[in-house]
Design goal:
By secondary structure, the chain is α+β, with helices and mostly antiparallel strands. The protein has one domain. The protein is built from 2 helices and 4 strands. Strands 3-2-1-4 form a 4-stranded mixed sheet. The longest helix is centred in the middle third of the chain and has 12 residues. The relative contact order is 0.18.
Length: about 100
């Protein structure tokens, strides 16, 4: 609910079960963050979901993950990603 207005959200049945991911690659430009969730089962891996968000929304996601009362509160996300295999890439786009 935003500004007192209720927004109805459709949740398609094929998405309700979610997908499993044991790795993630984050790519970003000045305009967007691309989150690729990956299931790695040697000898191969596959992207199970891709989420593209604006920098403003990414800040809100990180704030929610690091917020008080959250089970991941106080974690250094870069350390977590580095030690658990998540990679962060920056794409240079020509203007």
């Amino acid at each position: 609910m935003r500004g007192g207005q209720e927004i109805k959200v459709n949740f398609p049945p094929n998405l309700q079960g979610g997908v499993y991911s044991n790795n993630m690659v984050v790519t970003h430009t000045k305009e967007e963050f691309i989150l690729d969730f990956i299931m790695v089962a040697p000898p191969a891996g596959a992207v199970t979901a891709r989420v593209i968000v604006s920098p403003g929304h990414m800040k809100r996601i990180l704030a929610a993950l690091q917020g008080s009362g959250n089970t991941v509160s106080g974690l250094d996300m870069r350390h977590l990603w580095k030690t658990h295999g998540c990679q962060v890439y920056t794409l240079d786009k020509a203007s």
